[in-house]
């Protein structure tokens, strides 16, 4: 039986055949599903769970078992390590719906997407699991027919037990957040307190560190780093325990996946920017421990607030970022990683050019906001409900610097004026941080996903345009 007999619309990009069985993604007015046609005696036909609509036609749900079957028969649907890819973009799909739009943009550029990217906090906010995050991406990759490889990132993980959950779901990238094992507070300690803490370290460790770094002018590319003994002692107190933990995590990853993983080191969750001397110390000590890391995320100068453009002195950002890029290029060749990187259009030309495109850019909430934009454009009644839920919930979320009183009363706005809120910093930040309460609301959740299914094409195109802007401003070369 041919695919024209399918009860719904088939995605032409998803049609593939194996062992006499044709498998495609399709949709009707309510849901997406897989369809299989061909020899019902084939092991492929039999392995996919689902409903036999006729002797040669099976309708298969988007289930964990069927995602596993797709990965088995079409290995290009499974995430892979991207340690050999120069430019990688963490797309961050909180809904399991954005990957088709991401792919539509990035397939025209010399970059590789990390399509599945979630933190434990995001899983809690959305009610998903790492298994669901990966499986949702598998189906979207199959739908788009994207065979060029993609990554999956267990983002901002702090504990080995959580890392193991991500690994078990097939996520090859782990972003190790060192914020809870580094002594960030020591950055503000008086020197006497630093010296007292340093003196408690093993004598051989103290000597090795001072011999390696103290009172040296270190040339890294065009930049020069001046490391005095006081800075070395401060770095030791702040970071040594965290770097030992990074070594433990690296050995754990190696035992689980050989060399098929990407380890990102995150030191960006601090209150003050990462000094170049500290970046150099961290990179050097990771390498001395034999830790192979793909990327490192410093905390950059200025404000990388959620959902809006960079806030700060652009000339000073350029000056400091160049040193960070020089350190990465000359101290192992790892990628500079920019967290909270979505919509930071003002700094993209600097980030792209100064890294020579050897970078990892992390985005997450911006694809959620593009979904909100679609709702505002096409379902004003639902948008108002979501907006009011956001207003009722924002005090319980991350601290918000924006003055939400500037937004105005959505009930007093015309329907045609609602989409403009997604161009307003205060409204963007409000909706960005309250995705959890909206998606967990028992009334709003089904209304939202029903609307997103209805407006699937509009969402795909909105995400494509938004990410095309990201990639072009970064300066990623076209294919």
Overview of the molecule:
This protein is of the alpha/beta class and 479 residues long. The chain has a domain of 71 residues. The chain has 18 helices and 16 strands. The strands form 3 sheets. Strands 7-8-9-10-13-14-15-16 form an 8-stranded parallel β-barrel, surrounded by 6 helices. Strands 1, 2, 3, 4, 5 and 6 form a 6-stranded antiparallel β-sheet that branches. It has a two-stranded antiparallel ribbon with strand order 11-12. Helix 11 links the parallel strand 14 and strand 15. The longest helix is centred in the middle third of the chain and has 29 residues. The two termini are 38 Å apart.
Topology:
Blueprint: E1 9-10, E2 16-18, E3 21-27, E4 32-38, H1 43-47, E5 51-54, E6 57-60, H2 64-73, E7 87-90, H3 99-106, E8 112-119, H4 120-126, H5 130-144, E9 151-157, H6 160-168, E10 173-177, H7 191-199, H8 203-213, E11 216-220, E12 223-227, H9 229-257, E13 262-266, H10 276-288, E14 295-297, H11 314-330, E15 335-338, H12 348-354, E16 359-362, H13 365-378, H14 380-393, H15 425-433, H16 435-440, H17 444-454, H18 456-474
Parallel strand pairs: 7-8, 7-16, 8-9, 9-10, 10-13, 13-14, 14-15, 15-16
Antiparallel strand pairs: 1-3, 2-3, 3-4, 4-6, 5-6, 11-12
Helix pairs in contact: 2-5, 3-5, 3-18, 7-9, 8-9, 9-10, 10-11, 13-14, 13-15, 13-18
């Amino acid at each position: 039986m041919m695919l024209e007999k399918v009860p719904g619309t088939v995605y032409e990009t998803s049609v593939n055949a194996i062992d006499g069985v044709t498998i495609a993604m399709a949709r009707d007015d309510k849901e997406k599903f897989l369809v299989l046609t061909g020899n019902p005696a084939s092991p492929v036909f039999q392995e996919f769970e689902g409903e036999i609509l006729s002797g040669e036609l099976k309708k298969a749900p988007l289930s964990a078992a069927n995602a596993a079957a797709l990965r088995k028969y079409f290995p290009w649907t499974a995430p892979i390590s991207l340690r050999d890819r120069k430019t990688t973009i963490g797309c961050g799909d909180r809904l399991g719906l954005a990957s088709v739009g991401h792919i539509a943009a990035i397939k025209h550029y010399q970059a590789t997407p990390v399509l599945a990217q979630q933190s434990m906090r995001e899983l809690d906010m959305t009610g998903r699991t790492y298994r669901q995050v990966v499986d949702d991406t598998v189906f979207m990759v199959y739908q788009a027919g994207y065979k060029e490889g993609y990554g999956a990132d267990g983002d901002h993980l702090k504990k080995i037990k959580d890392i193991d959950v991500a690994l078990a779901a097939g996520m090859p990238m782990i972003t190790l957040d060192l914020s809870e094992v580094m002594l960030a507070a020591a950055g503000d300690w008086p020197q006497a307190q630093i010296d007292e803490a340093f003196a408690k370290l093993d004598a051989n460790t103290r000597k090795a560190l001072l011999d390696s770094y103290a009172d040296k002018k270190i040339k890294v590319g065009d930049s020069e780093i001046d490391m005095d003994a006081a800075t070395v002692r401060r770095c030791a107190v702040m970071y040594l325990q965290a770097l030992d933990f990074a070594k433990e995590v690296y050995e754990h990853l190696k035992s689980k996946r050989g060399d098929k993983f990407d380890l990102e080191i995150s030191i960006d969750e601090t209150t003050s920017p990462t000094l170049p001397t500290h970046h150099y110390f961290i990179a050097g000590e990771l390498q001395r421990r034999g830790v192979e890391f793909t990327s490192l995320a410093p905390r950059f100068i200025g404000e990388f607030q959620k959902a809006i453009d960079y806030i700060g002195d652009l000339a000073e950002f350029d000056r400091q970022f160049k040193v960070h890029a020089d350190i990465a290029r000359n101290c192992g060749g790892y990628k500079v990683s920019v967290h909270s990187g979505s919509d930071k259009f003002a700094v993209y030309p600097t980030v792209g050019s100064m890294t020579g495109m050897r970078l990892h850019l992390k985005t997450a909430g911006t694809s959620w906001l593009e979904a909100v934009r679609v709702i505002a454009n096409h379902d004003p009644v639902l948008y108002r409900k979501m907006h009011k839920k956001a207003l009722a919930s924002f005090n319980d979320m991350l601290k918000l610097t924006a003055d939400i009183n500037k937004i105005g009363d959505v009930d007093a706005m015309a329907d045609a004026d609602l989409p403009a809120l997604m161009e307003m910093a205060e409204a963007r930040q409000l909706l960005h941080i309250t995705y959890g309460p909206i998606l967990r609301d028992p009334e709003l959740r089904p209304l939202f996903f029903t609307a997103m299914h209805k407006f699937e094409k509009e969402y795909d195109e909105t995400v494509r345009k938004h990410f095309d802007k990201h990639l072009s401003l970064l300066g990623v070369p076209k294919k």
